[in-house]
Specification:
The complex is a heterodimer of chains A (291) and B (353). By secondary structure, chain A is an alpha/beta fold. Chain A folds into two domains: 109 residues, Elongation Factor Tu (Ef-tu), domain 3; 129 residues, Nucleotide-binding domain of ferredoxin-NADP reductase (FNR) module (Rossmann fold), CATH 3.40.50. Helices cover 22% and strands 31% of the residues of chain A. In chain A, the strands form three sheets. In chain A, strands 10-9-8-7-11-12-15 form a seven-stranded mixed sheet, sandwiched between helices. In chain A, strands 4-3-6-1-2-5 form a six-stranded antiparallel sheet. With 353 residues, chain B is α+β, with helices and mostly antiparallel strands. In chain B, 38% of the residues lie in helices and 21% in strands. Chain B has an eight-stranded mixed sheet, sandwiched between helices. In chain B, strands 5-4-12-11 form a four-stranded antiparallel sheet, with no helix packed on it. In chain B, helix 10 packs across helix 12 and helix 12 packs across helix 13. Classes of the chains: A alpha/beta (291), B alpha+beta (353). At the A-B interface, strand 1, strand 4, helix 3 and strand 13 of A face strand 4, strand 5, helix 3, strand 11 and helix 12 of B.
Amino acid sequence: MCNSLRHEETCQKNDGLCPIVTFPEVVNIDEIADEAPEVKTFYMSFLDKEVEKNFRIKSGQFIMCTVFGAGEFAVSLPPSPENDRFHITVRAVGKVTNALHALKPGDKLGVRGPFGNGFPFEDIKGKNIIYVAGGIGLIPLRSSIVHALQHRKDFGRIILLYGSRSARDLLYQPDIKEWQKTDGFETYITIDRAEPGWTGEVGYVNTLIEKANVPVDNTVAFVCGPPIMFNSVIDDFMKRGMSEDNIISTLERQMKCGIGKCQHCAIGRTLVCTDGPVYTYRQIKTLGEVI
Amino acid sequence: MSKYFATSQEIKQLAEELCKSHEIYGPQVDQQSGQVFFDVLSDLDALDLDAAIPSMPVKEILFPQMERILQYRYDDATQNVTMEKAYAEKPKVLFGLRPCDLAGIQCLDRFFLGQEYVDDVYLAHRRQSILITNTCTRPWDQCFCVCTHTGPAADEGYDLDLTKIADGYLVQVGSEKGQAIADQRGWTPAEARQLKEKDAVVDRSVEAFPALAKDNKAWISRAMNRITTGFVKHEIWEYIGNQCVECGACSFVCPTCSCFNIEDAKMCDGECERLRTRDSCSFEGYTRMAGDHNPRQPVEDRRNKRFFCKLSFSQSKKYLRPGCVGCGRCQWVCPGDIGLPNVVQYLRRETTA
């Protein structure tokens, strides 16, 4: 039994199954794949099969991952809630993520979670979905993309606009090829500067909004990327008359506990770990702190 | 709830009895510095119920500055990990808490045990603790608990409450745990005259505030109103922020500040430990993420955050009261001039000028 006082509400999004709250459960790294320079995907499985059976995630949630001897970090979950291998994709930027990148298959990690509210999938049935990702912003959106494609007929147009610094930095390329086989999945990919061998679009990701001729009515946009990209994409969407409620993003903050106690992720009156990390643009605007 | 009369001798016997089954903490005066510390009593004779308000808040016992919560060993060769919970669950009695410190514990209780998740580590400390409060018969220089409604006598939340009256103590029971203790003592039920005597003691204490507690006054409700409705000008936050030297002392002496950090430390023999240490929102690194992106930059933003936490309505909903308990310690330690009572003054002066 979990130690959430609002057990029903907290665990209902994970089919009534409780998150791992205080002490990490051990996972084995089964396989490590290079995605891009400094970005690796770690496929893993729980040692305790009972725990694995009870570990259910929702798109947009995150886990706290322990690299033994180095520390713990918050990381979003790219796997789909259904029929997908449990994995995380991480760029080496700090002390703990660099230690993670030094690990080999067979090494162990600790996992707590899943935490956070997740994307509001129930509310957007029947609508068009636009995914706008910049760089590693595709990682938190991957879960939602796979999930939406698994339920293709529940949605209208599904469009992915993805921008990256260079062709080498594009993530999940085999996955994207796989997704493109799904009927009516539109992908537009761009890189910041032209380079030899690249025949696709060149420019920032917001230029794709025009090219894709994105719908505005009955449409939800999931936007995830660096702050500068986020702001310009929002501007373009607002100019096209998109409602603030239909632009959805996930925020990242320094987190230590994941359960709303350490307060590191507080923005104004909300805590990103328990109230977020998924917010609409209308909410983000009123939080009073920059992205 | 029952009320008893106990002589000073009987109160001492109570401490001796509880000491057998619990670790006992109480106020004691350090002979060299004259400072009061609320700490483990190795010698019960050192317990001084007349001592002034302790220099450090009592949260140190339930939410220590640094605490080991997990211990593990990772073997690189076999790729195996052994892990065990490291925090201890010891029965404790806090003997002679000042009412402001009790209010601080109540805030921590509501925050750590009453939000969406229960904090296991805090719960382990709190579950087996007995709280015995001690009414302040006089205020000290920095006290302003009459402004925050946390003293000089405790209203609720204690197990036993002591008030010094003429020839002994009036003991009030506040919980079942407290009643169970009282049932085992041979205390005489309090007479009406003794209850009146307590009221007189409290009244005298309140009346002594203008003469003795000269340092601080804070019209909390007014400041709360201003902060909650966002009526505070940015210049006033800058004025406050410019005085902050980022020492974090205010957070560490505040009975209700509860931010913490979690770090894993490797020791020389391959053993690792996960440490939970107190943190302060005034530090620059508090919100800094890997890759040096920091969404909360200027110092006035960070100051703003602490006072928002103490004085806004949305945070008070978590504590079920304002986040300030009127102990005045932040004013004591601040190298600038931005202890909470002063900030309340600034906010008022700005909005009334």
